[in-house]
Design a protein that fits this description.
Elements (H helix, E strand, L loop, with lengths): L2 H9 L4 E10 L4 E10 L5 E10 L2 E9 L7
Length: 72
């Protein structure tokens, strides 16, 4: 995904009071993590952040809402 798409998606995340890392799916070339974000006001939001191997590190390649996983 182009970098500007990630920036655009990250801009949708509200000001954060706290966050919590959840389920991690690890792969040799792509991994993902569930992140629960608690905004300064409102209910917690759940996102799946996808990362791709880049050299010896990782690069964020996607951020998708996982709101259906909160049961509501």
């Amino acid at each position: 995904a182009p970098a500007r798409d990630i920036v655009k998606e990250m801009a949708k995340v509200p000001p954060v009071r706290e966050f919590e890392l959840g389920e991690v799916e690890r792969g040799p070339f792509e991994s993902s993590v569930i992140v629960t974000v608690t905004p300064e006001s409102g209910a917690p939001l759940v996102y799946r952040v996808t990362l791709a191997r880049e050299g010896v590190g990782w690069k964020v390649t996607g951020i998708d809402n996982e709101w259906r996983s909160t049961g509501g």
